[in-house]
Amino acid sequence: MYYERHIDNYLSEWASRDVRKPVLLRGARQVGKSTAVRHLGKQFEYYVEINFEKKPEYKKLFQGNLDVMRIVPQIAAMYGKPVQAGKTLLFFDEIQTCPEAIMSLRFFKEDIPGLHVIAAGSLLEFALEELPTFGVGRIHSMFMYPMTFDEFLKASGEQLLIDARNQASAREPIPEPLHDRLIGLLRNYMLVGGMPEVVERWVQTHDFIQCQEVQDDIIISYEDDFAKYRKRIDSSLLRLTMRSAAVQVTRKFVYSQVGGGYRTDEIKKALEMLIRAGILIPVTHTNANGLPLGSEADHSYRKILLLDTGLMLRLLNMTMGDISQITTHILTAGAADLVNKGPMAEQMVGLEMLRYQSPNIRHDLFYWVRQVRNSQAEIDYVASHLQNVLPVEVKAGTQGGMKSLWLFMREKRISEAVRCSLENFGTLDYIDNEANAAVRHVHICPLYAISMMYSGL
């Protein structure tokens, strides 16, 4: 069964254009890239999928020259299906194993512009890095991530609940029984995560143990992939770095905590490789004095997120042993403890903020910390909205627990902010007497409604 994905509308819109470029679908292994393309393929009269790992014989077609007017008829002959502009979706999967095929993509745009072509693969970033050129300006990249909470709800048959939530606002909060139901489903999502195979197992069984078995298999497949990086870096260091990132998640990443006796420069290289592979997501410090936020980014201050909350918990289990106390906490803790104790809520908000954005460009996450000795002020995330800087805090507390937010808004002269919590929809107004009685508006966005974060602002 196919579960609807955020990227589906973008792929359909691309397919409907009169003029289009080949798409390079990028993202970590097993986030659902191939499945989404196959779903799109149902809109076409013919669908041709070539997996270069399963059928390496197709690589021979790209040897010698990259004349697509020669290559396409040969593909059709070998596959036994027409490859025709306007009628066929041609999908190259695991294209990273055939660099020549990556380089050929630019010529599809030039020589057969009417043919729909999509390519995808794991570890693509490394393959692209080694190519002299792969068609900048002639290829369109899309970026794909694990399933969002909204996608998880749809897969779980909760479309009516989504519709009810989407009607709620600060003026008309969602009814309390539905609020409680959404919180319960959110707890499940924190444990299950958004890897499509794990979500499918959850929908079929509602068994966390079976989901954990799938998660463990995914992590092992990631670590098996590390052997493919061997020319670049020690695979044992990559494994240590990934597991240390799980332990340090949502905190400033400290290289010395990775262990293994590796030098800082080696760990930095491993960290960057895992980021490029899509397994780790950086959250970079910014001074946030204006836009773009990246213009004041300080890459020496970074927090690291895992691409998926479910995988993070399994990595913690592999690193620290039994984590049953953590999972029990997620399933049973009160709202304040669930949000304020442990990294799960903060990690989930960052991932959700990233995944609901357009897949047509690579987006970055930022945070702010006051770089003054003995200062504790920190804002979990800093985003941009309507050409303004928007602080986003993940908190369960009240005004007294938001000193960092008030300080940030005063220093940056910001009037709007978002607090993500397990509260219902609402707003909080604060009169800042230290800034000439300026009014600060804080919009309360429930953790189960990050897709609605910017509505009402």
Described by its quaternary structure, the protein is single chain
Measured as a percent range, the helix fraction is 40-55%
Mean pLDDT: 92
Note the main sheet.
Answer: 5 strands, parallel
What is the gyration radius calculated from CA atoms? 23 Å
Number of helices: 17
Structural class: alpha/beta
Q: In terms of per-residue confidence, which ranges show pLDDT below 50 for 5 or more consecutive residues?
A: none
Compute the number of strand runs: 14
* Distance between the ends: 37 Å
The strand order across the widest sheet is 2-3-4-1-5
Approximately what portion of the residues adopt beta-strand conformation? 15-25%
Global shape? globular
Short summary:
With 457 residues, this protein is an alpha/beta fold. It is 40% helix and 18% strand.
What can you see in these coordinates?
With 457 residues, the chain is an alpha/beta fold. 40% of the residues lie in helices and 18% in strands. It is built from 17 helices and 14 strands. It has helices at 8-16, 33-41, 68-79, 99-111, 124-129, 149-155, 159-166, 176-192, 196-205, 208-225, 235-248, 264-276, 309-320, 324-332, 335-340, 344-355, 403-412; strands at residues 23-26, 46-51, 88-93, 116-120, 140-143, 280-286, 297-306, 365-369, 378-379, 381-385, 388-394, 416-421, 426-432, 438-446. Strands 2-3-4-1-5 form a five-stranded parallel sheet, with helices on both faces. A five-stranded mixed sheet has the order 10-11-12-14-13. Helix 3 links the parallel strand 2 (46-51) and strand 3. The two termini are 37 Å apart. The model has no long low-confidence stretch (mean pLDDT 92).
